[in-house]
Write a structure and sequence with these properties.
Length: 649
Amino acid sequence: MKSYRMAALILVFAALLLTTTAHADGPKSDTQPDAAPNTTQSVELEELEVIATPIIQGNEIDRYGATSTVVSEEQMDKLGALDLSSALRRTPGVTISRHNPVGAFGGGEGGAVFIRGMGSSRPGSEIKTFIDGVPAYMGVWNHPLIDLLPVDPIESIEVLKGPQPNRFGDALSIINIVPKRMRGDDFTTTIEASAGSYGTISQSLEHGGRIGEFDYYMGQGFRRSDGHREDADGRQFSLFGNLGVQLNQYWDVRLFALNVDNEASDPGPDDNSAAKEGSYETRMRLASLTFSNDFDMAHGEIKFFANAGEGYWRDQAGADDDCLNDFWFWGLKAREQFNITDDFEITVGLDQQWWDGNIRYTYDNGTDDSVLAPSFALTMPYASTSYLIGETDGWHIIPSVGVRQYEHNKFDSRTAPHAGLVAGYGSTEVHASMSKGISYPGHDVVILFPTAQWQDIEPEEVEHVEVGISHTFQDLFKIDLTYFHDDGQDRYVFTLPPFPPTWSNTEEFEIEGFEASLSVTPTPDLSLFTGLTIQNSTPGDMPYVPETTVSGGFNWQFLEDFNLSMDCEYVSDMYALKQVRKAGTSNTEKVDDHFLVNARLGWTFFLDDWDAEGELYLSVQNITDEDYEYKPNYPMPGTNGMVGVKLTF
């Protein structure tokens, strides 16, 4: 992995170079002469609306040197995304898997998202998924289910890359959905419907408004498809609401609620239809109640949450046997940031989470069996501080440090420290961070082998290092370069035989890579983006860690009322399927490299009598009819398309 260490040195050199170059457009020095008086009469120019950036909204660096990527609703629309994995499919550092046009078949092999190599372990996972900061994943098996995360309530998606103890715990990477809420002072209604290949249909209805200190936003979405193969069908349904009240000058309260109901089938490998794995049903009811405050020297929130869900696997392996999983989460999240001075910041917080689960098996012979998992509880207090030296629009440096403590009711305690440094001049900024990530076992260790000594398992740990640089040149372009290194240890696995099996923390892994992205806006009507991820893993058979991924796209507004969005991606060959938690196993299944091109053409029109704006659009996927797959012998669709209309009143 020496090449990646060389990349880190290149980043440091680039930082020095760009920082020097930034003097040209940085703040004026005190020794520079004042400019001549401006005697020209000022003219108020018409504000130009700049077209949205394609693929991602942008990369963000916080005061602790931690990175995240944000994808907004507008980017999802341009990508023609019907679910979370298609919304993130071009995001640098993210790899996806799927085998149905609509619907994800319960877990890593039928629909999942992986972040810089994290997320392929089954059961269990290194990444977790959240909605409004609330856990939203399969609690019994301790891994995400993509269908629990519908696109309809999404205002934006946050992809937090690597451990960030200052923001979250009990995971090594995070995907968080920020739900829609009413942002304006009027009323709005949006209706959208589309239809296309393979009997695919999609519709949504949303409405929001504000009445005095009260605001609301609610919506409903449905989509289904017969699929491009027999038994590749799927459906998704969601219903959500977001209500808020400004209580007084300092406090407001907000209630978000979500209900989802989905189903996806397994088409099976194309060379063995008898190996079909039936269907997977997912349902969830989630609610979060948030009290937010905003004072002169402090702001924060306390959030109470609860959710309950099911993952029902019907007709496993072509039989009538069912595996019925139920999970429950509840708890609170409190966080307060104190601005001691304009430059000195202290944050304290507490995440308290409880979760339960059970699993029931029903068999062809009429018998059944069940396992009730013990209640898990995890308490995570944390604190961090950062200090700004200088001015953010000039020379500045922000050192930071923090720690998160883990107290579990069944497993050993852990401590996760972190430290960061952000430095820059004007529009150039360098960031570096070191952090430890902690991920506890879930109910999977109990359900798989109830008699095994699962209480002796240690939580998984990752030591994360990241260094990068970003530079913005006026409003023309922004470039981000990042080197990352993850050193994982104590991955829990079981040995079998003998029986009963034994659990142990024996496996280690290492992931090292380089990530780059460039956004260019040469004119208000044209925006371009390209991203590159190069990564390597040890052991070398870790699934969904392609060595090279290149993505790109553009948004172009032309002839006033037309817009064209195109996106493409090259993914090198990679190992696939799950990384099983059994000692001594290796992964031999691979999928070939592929290059995909998609496009979306839209025409904007206005209905003056209805005071409405509309868009008629055509979306085409896999324009070049590429043969590709994310899972061996599960071919993905060829060229296909959707036509739709969207009206906003």
